[in-house]
Amino acid sequence: MFNNLARRYSEQAFSKLTEVYDDLVKNSALESTFEDLDPEQDAEFRRERVARYGRQFTVPSGIYPGCNTTSDAANNFSTIHEFAAKGLEQKHRDITDSLGRLQPDLYKSNEEMVNHIENGESAGHLDVSLKFNQSESILTVEILRAKCLSSKVSQPFIKICLLPDRKNKFQTRVHRIPSPQNPEIKETFSFNVPYHNLKDRILQCSLYDFDKSANHALIGRYLIRNILEQGELLNETTFSGEITPAREDREELGELMLSLCYLPAAGRLNVTIVKAVCLKAMDITGSSDPYVKISLIQHGKRVKKKKTTVKRNTLNPVYNEAMVFDIPPELMPYSAINLQIIDYDRIGHSELIGYVDVGHKCHGLGFTHWKEAIESPRTPVAYWHILIKDS
After folding, report:
1. Three-state secondary structure call for residue 98
2. Distance between CA atoms of 54 and 81, rounded to whole angstroms?
3. Residue 174: count of CB within 10 angstroms of its CB
4. CB-based burial label for 194 (10 Å; 0-12, 13-18, 19+)
């Protein structure tokens, strides 16, 4: 008898859940999603949803006489309503998955941002506004503000470029006061780019800490990879995200193979530029037009310079070009050569890809190569050198 009584009351509770769920569906914008179901499919769908979220719900004690029931949830009608609403919420999630999801990073509190910074997971937060003018093919970028920067950052500024084009880049002013950790920047820049190219472009925002000696420290980067993710940008659209900690990756600039041969009797240094590999792409086409400029430095002064031919549209140029510098033996301890690989640009300014210093007072491989060339006269000595570049 007790089992029959419990079953009857359970069926009543199940019926109540179904009614609540029906009310939610009728009052929602998702009512049309059930129009394609036949009556049996519709009933089965509702039964499955209510059963899924009502399974853990037991009838509140005191409602039905003779039944000793318990509930982990609150003993009121709103709790039943809540369980039924979960089914509708799940259905809504299934439908909207293909339309995109909210980005939780956009809604983090300042406390969460600070925790990420302290854990080394973030270098801060950056807000950027984008708008595209289709008639003029201009992308307007406004750097709005940075938030929760590290206390070690005292004079922040930001460089931006639209990858893969690194030539057309801009820089904000340096922010010192009143709050370098939460600077209000509000500076606007424009890029001339066709609309159909936007899907292949990446907006790179690099955060630096200013140094008076020009050796600015790279703190981190914020990349907007899918510029058209939030629409056609006909209206001003705000992007917000974390600044990922980063260091200047010097290896990505490329490497240069260099051969030195010193003839002490003639007081002559033969410098052969052999080739370079894996140079950084500087053009929008994903390539470069590199040449090498070699400067002889004595007592800290540039006394002579020469350059190779330009190799068109390549990141792995082969030169095999020799340059001759007259250096008496007594001046070798005070001499050095500086080799710059430069991307030639017919219109505008040519841009430095990276450089190498080799000499008696240089450090690392630059000193080793120079010393070995002096100690092995009349013998070509070749080394690979990793390009570097000041920030």
Report:
1. helix
2. 10
3. 16
4. exposed
**Is the Cβ–Cβ distance between 258 and 265 less than 8 Å?**
no
* Upper half-sphere CA count for residue 38 (Cβ side, 13 Å): 1
Alpha-carbon separation of residue 109 from 114, 115, 238, 333 (angstroms): 9, 10, 17, 59
The one-digit pLDDT tens for each residue of the chain (391 residues) are 444 544 554 555 556 555 655 555 454 444 444 444 455 555 555 555 545 444 444 444 443 333 444 334 434 444 444 444 455 455 444 434 433 334 444 444 444 444 444 444 578 889 999 999 988 999 999 999 988 887 778 888 889 988 877 767 888 888 876 666 888 889 999 999 988 888 888 898 988 888 765 567 888 888 888 788 777 788 888 898 888 887 654 446 888 999 999 999 999 999 999 999 888 888 877 889 999 999 999 998 999 999 999 999 999 999 999 999 999 999 999 999 999 999 998 877 889 999 999 998 888 788 889 999 999 999 999 998 888 887 5
| 3-state DSSP assignment of residue 106 | helix
Contact 60, 69 (CB under 8 A): yes
- State the pTM of this model: 0.40
* Distance set, CA 189 to CA 93, 200, 267, 307 (Å): 38, 19, 53, 35
Half-sphere exposure of 10 (CA within 13 A, CB side): 15
How many CA atoms lie within 13 Å of 272's alpha carbon, on the beta-carbon side? 13
Distance, C-alpha 230 to centroid of its chain: 17
CA pair distance 107, 122, nearest whole angstrom = 15
Q: Are 120 and 145 in contact (CB under 8 A)?
A: no
Q: Distance between CA atoms of 258 and 321, rounded to whole angstroms?
A: 10
Helix (H, G, I), strand (E, B) or coil at 21: helix
Strand partners, 351: 343
Closest-CA residue to 182 (of 236, 246, 117): 117
Which of 226, 221, 217, 144 shows the shortest CA–CA distance to 186? 144
Both structure tokens of 190: 């424009």
